[in-house]
Structure formats: structure tokens, C-alpha cells
């Protein structure tokens, strides 16, 4: 009799702890154990009574299960993303058709995919420039990703062509700073203000290397993001930032510091 009471007490204690621990306990009690034999009636009654008296536990367990599933999905997505970065590291970080600003020999590369008609790209500009200027050891790799139509493509081609006259980063900043849509007319206006040879700029914009740069950036973006594409998109070592918040500069700085401290888990 005493042994029976002790067993029942132990079962109740263990069961209560298991029920409140999370969804795993519920799965074990309701699904796993019946496959090897029916639960004792006393255990079933304890479980049923406990859940009847505390139905909020089921809500808590469901919420916890959803949180764990979301975390696992994010973790798997991050691992797939890192794998893509490692497999395409040369094209992402060291492409001969990409433009580099900041310190060309910097110890951490920040790769930015952007569109001149992207509002968040414009918003992020001051933070990116501040990072480059204040850090001194950041290598900024700029990849034109004109996803907002023909106007964006025209502006991107002319901006890339400005590199042959040594004014790419100046034109890049000015196009992202100007009010209104970025298009061919705006890009040519900016080029004149910067003192570029506009006729040469138009001719250079049709160079096959310009198309290669745009095609490469788009291909990499699809590998990294899937579809649909979005901007801005930042690859910093083996880490990714794909949103611009009110604390974006601090976020950029923190990721750069982390990559600098621990390095990358693979090629970067």
C-alpha cells in the first residue's frame, strides 16, 4: 500500500513536471507511449485532469513549439546562406568587375547590393559612408542590383561607367543622395556636376564589362536571396544584414567587429 502511494506520488510529480516543461512532454504522453502499450488508467486520469484544470498550458506549449520551429528554420536558413557565401566567395568579395571603396586592403569586406531607386539604400548611405570613414579598415564592395526597372538599369550602367574616369564612388554617393527618381537624365546631370566627360561616359556604359557586372551581381543575389530580390542586402564576412533599422550604423559596426574578432567559418 505504501509502495503504491509512493509510486502514484512519484508518477504525479514526474508527470506534472513533464507537462509543464514543453510540447515534448505532451507528444510523449499522447502519442509515443500508446504505440508500445496503453497508459495506466491512473496516469491517463492524472494527465486529463491536469490539462483540464490548466488548459493554458496547451497554449503555452503550442507557442513554445512554434518559437522553437521558427528558430530552427532561421538557423537552417542561415547555414544555407553561409554555404552559398563560401561557395561563391571569390565572386562576392573579389570580383574583378565589382567596385571597391574604403580601404582596398581592409581586413573586413562589407558587400552591398543596392539600387539607386531603393529608399532603404538611400537611408543606409550615411551609415555605410560613416562606417568606412571611421573604421579605416573596412573594404566596401559595391554591387549594382537594379531591380526597380529600366530607370534603375540606366542609372546603374552610367554609374559603373564613371569608374573609368575615376569618379565611381562620388557618383554612387550623389545618385543615392539626390531627390527624385534615379534615371538616365539624373545620372547624366550628376556626371556633369562631377566634371565627367559625358560623351565618353555614354560610350563606356555600353562596354561588355558593364553588362557582365550587372549580370554577375544579379546571379549572386539570386543565389543568396532566392526570389524575389530585395535591396539593400549586405554580406559581411559570413554574416548577412538584409534590413535597415534606426540603429543600422550600430548593427553594421557590431557585425564588422564580430567578423574581425572571430574570422569567417569558411572562405570570405
Q: What features would you describe in this structure?
A:
There is one protein chain. With 268 residues, this protein is an alpha+beta fold. The protein has two domains: 75 residues, no CATH class; 175 residues, Glutaredoxin (3-Layer(aba) Sandwich). The chain has twelve helices and five strands. A hairpin with a 2-residue loop joins β4 and β5. The longest helix is centred in the N-terminal third of the chain and has 32 residues. The N terminus is likely disordered.
Spatially, the strands of the biggest sheet line up as 1-3-2-4-5
Please tell me how large the radius of gyration is.
28 Å
> Structural class, please?
alpha+beta
- Helical amount: 55-70%
End-to-end Cα distance: 69 Å
- Choose one word for the global shape: elongated
Mean pLDDT across the residues is: 85
| Name of the level-1 CATH class of the largest domain | Alpha Beta
Order of helices and strands: HHHHHEEHEHHHHHEEH
Count of separate DSSP helical elements: 12
Please summarize what this structure is.
This protein has helices spanning 2-21, 23-32, 41-53, 56-87, 89-93, 119-135, 150-161, 168-177, 184-193, 198-204, 208-225, 248-262; strands spanning 99-102, 108-114, 138-144, 233-236, 239-241.
Highlighted features:
single chain; about 270 residues; alpha+beta; five-stranded mixed sheet; disordered N terminus
Element layout with pairings:
Blueprint: H1 2-21, H2 23-32, H3 41-53, H4 56-87, H5 89-93, E1 99-102, E2 108-114, H6 119-135, E3 138-144, H7 150-161, H8 168-177, H9 184-193, H10 198-204, H11 208-225, E4 233-236, E5 239-241, H12 248-262
Amino acid at each position: 500500500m505504501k509502495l503504491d502511494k509512493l509510486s502514484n506520488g512519484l508518477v504525479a510529480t514526474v508527470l506534472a513536471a513533464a507537462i509543464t516543461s514543453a510540447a515534448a512532454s505532451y507528444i510523449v504522453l499522447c502519442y509515443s507511449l500508446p504505440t508500445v502499450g496503453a497508459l495506466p488508467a491512473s496516469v491517463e486520469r492524472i494527465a486529463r485532469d491536469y490539462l483540464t484544470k490548466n488548459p493554458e498550458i496547451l497554449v503555452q506549449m503550442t507557442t513554445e513549439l512554434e518559437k522553437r520551429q521558427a528558430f530552427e528554420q532561421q538557423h537552417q536558413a542561415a547555414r544555407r546562406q553561409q554555404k552559398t557565401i563560401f561557395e561563391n566567395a571569390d565572386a562576392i568579395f573579389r570580383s574583378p568587375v565589382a567596385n571597391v571603396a574604403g580601404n582596398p586592403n581592409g581586413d573586413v569586406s562589407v558587400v552591398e547590393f543596392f539600387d539607386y531607386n531603393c529608399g532603404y539604400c538611400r537611408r543606409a548611405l550615411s551609415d555605410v559612408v560613416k562606417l568606412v570613414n571611421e573604421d579605416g579598415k573596412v573594404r566596401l564592395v559595391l554591387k549594382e542590383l537594379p531591380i526597380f526597372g529600366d530607370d534603375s538599369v540606366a542609372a546603374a550602367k552610367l554609374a559603373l561607367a564613371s569608374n573609368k574616369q575615376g569618379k565611381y564612388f562620388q557618383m554612387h554617393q550623389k545618385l543615392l543622395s539626390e531627390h527624385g527618381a534615379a534615371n538616365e537624365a539624373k545620372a547624366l546631370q550628376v556626371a556633369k556636376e562631377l566634371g565627367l566627360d559625358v560623351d565618353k561616359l555614354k560610350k563606356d556604359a555600353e562596354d561588355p564589362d558593364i553588362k557582365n557586372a550587372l549580370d554577375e551581381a544579379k546571379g549572386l543575389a539570386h543565389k543568396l536571396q532566392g526570389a524575389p530580390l530585395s535591396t539593400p542586402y549586405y554580406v559581411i564576412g559570413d554574416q548577412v544584414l538584409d534590413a535597415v533599422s534606426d540603429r543600422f550604423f550600430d548593427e553594421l559596426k557590431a557585425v564588422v567587429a564580430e567578423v574581425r574578432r572571430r574570422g569567417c567559418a569558411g572562405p570570405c
